[in-house]
Amino acid sequence: MKASITVIIPCFNEEARLARSVRAIVSYLRESEFTADLLFVNDGSTDTTVELIEKLRSEVYPLAVEIRGWTQNRGKGAAVREGMLHAAREWCLICDADLSTPIEDLDRLLSAGADHDVIIGSRRAPGAQILAPQPWYRVIMGKFFSRLSGILLALPVNDVTCGFKLLSREAARKVGGKMTLDRWGYDAELIKIAVEQNCRMKEVGVRWTHDAGSKVRLGKDILRSACELVMIWRNSLNGRYRGE
Hints:
Spore Coat Polysaccharide Biosynthesis Protein SpsA, Chain A, globular
């Protein structure tokens, strides 16, 4: 499927790994049959992330590059929401700066795009491959979060937190405009809103490699995420996610 795509990359102190990922993304996009641009959302980085992006502009050309963001760290959810609301092309791909899922797996998501508005990359759907697994305790907590999301929010996916998602521009605007969470519960909120907005959704298996540089603080972030699931449940109960 030919398409035009905005690649959204949330960034928080990514100077050590961003250049490698950007070069991989650009190489893939140049070989593809669709047009694309890159939208970096800087979430209050205190290192040289922004300067690095500026230096990479010459390598990225002729792809357009936009940098948005703020000086204080707000959270990945805020960065993802900002990207969704400002992506200009027909589709927007949300991907992590470390490319835990290789950019080439966008082909898998696009193959479902003609009949769906939101395509969720998944480590637990048919065809998924875990190339380098997480530590066992992260696997357990990730499954616990997805299971709790399914029970409390009735989410129709097996992997809530994989950071590789494709949305049509219309769905991105519709969903992003109703998102409220700035931190790690944003994945569950995004999917819940998509459900309540009657978006056509599909979960697609992708490849995935654990990055030891992950910024998740297991105990604190899991507790916060559990609290945010309750917030999503309350928002849904109060009708926050329905309507235009």
